[in-house]
Each structure stands twice: as structure tokens, then as C-alpha cells.
Amino acid sequence: MSISTITAFQAQQKIAEGAVCIDIRQAEEFLREHIQGAVCTPLAQLQATGLPEQAKNSNCIIFYCKSGGRTGSACNQLVALNTEENREIFLLQDGLNGWKSSGFLTEKNQRQPIEMQRQVQIAAGSLILLSMILGTFINPLFYVLATFVGAGLMFAGISGFCGMAIFLAKMPWNKV
Fold first, then answer.
1. Where are the membrane-spanning stretches (predicted)?
2. Is 94 left (phi over 0), alpha (psi -120 to 50) or beta?
3. Is 65 designated active site?
4. For the domain with range 4-108, which CATH number is right: 3.30.390.10, 3.40.50.970, 3.40.50.720, 3.40.250.10?
């Protein structure tokens, strides 16, 4: 069995008929913004525990993430979760972004911090840009900072350990 992709308009109709939306993003992403009535069950949790109770009782499930990339990559894993022959499962085309671009509303909580990955990208990019400017106009030794940040990002990608993310997690704006 495979999973079909449906548009936001089709998904909205299925939701009105009782379909359950499952957001496979991390909890902090879900808390910041999600489709109203969706259930947050990150992909790792789905793999470990299976479908949430709301979905087990539904004959239609719609999986989504932010842009459709994660759900598309996990398609085979999501198919394996469907143990009922009569249950329809779908992927939301373009994910939450597709939902919003179709004009449908989401539940937002701007008080929630932005995702940690984006915080790391902003911090690393800012440090590299700053070191390039300082290295060009003040002293070339500032280029070392860019090298250090780049090496840290490379290490984080290889090892899965990101010191910058740990540091940023301790910032006051992430203490919600």
C-alpha cells in the first residue's frame, strides 16, 4: 500500500468528515504553529509507539510536517503504521506551508521560541558574517572565528552533538 498526497483543500474536506491530522514535527515546532485540531506525534515517537489513540479510531489519517519533506522521506515508515485495511492515509501536499498558502488558518503561539535549528542557523550565520566584516576592516585574525564556527557546524553534522544548540537552549527566550 502507498500513501497518496492530497491538497490542503482536499485535506480540509477530509478533516470536516472526521479525518485525524498528525503533525510529525518536533513538539516545539508544533507548539509555535499547527493546524487546528492536529495531534503532535513526532516521527521517532510514531516509530516507537505507533499511532496515537485518536488516529487508531479514525478511518482517515493525514500526516504533515512543515513543507512536506519529512513526511515524504518517511513515507514507507508511515505506510507501515497503517495496520487497518480500510483506513485511508494521506500526506498533506507541501505540509503546513501548503495549508497556509491555500488560505487556511493555523493555531499560532508567537510566545513560543523559534525552532532550535533555526536559532543555530541565525547564530552561526551572524557570527560568520561578523567575523568576515571584522576580519576585512579591523584585523584578519577575526577570520579565525569563522573557521571555528564552521568547524563546529561540521562537527555537529558528523557527531550529532551541537554545542551551540546546547548553549542556545539555556537562553532566557527558550525557557518557556
1. 120-138, 144-169
2. left
3. yes
4. 3.40.250.10
**Catalytic: which of 21, 60, 65, 162?**
65
pLDDT in tens, 45-103: 998 999 999 898 899 999 999 999 999 999 888 888 877 778 899 999 999 999 999 99
C-alpha cell belonging to residue 88: 485511508
Residue 39 CB neighbour total at 10 angstroms: 17
With the C-alpha atoms ordered 19, 24, 30, 33, is the resulting torsion angle positive or negative?
Answer: negative
- pLDDT tens digit string along 96-138? 999 999 999 999 998 889 889 999 999 999 999 999 999 999 9
- Residue 77 has which C-alpha cell? 515508515
Q: Residue 91 pairs with which residues in a beta bridge?
A: 5, 63
Question: How far apart, in whole angstroms, are the C-alpha atoms of residue 154 and residue 148?
Answer: 10
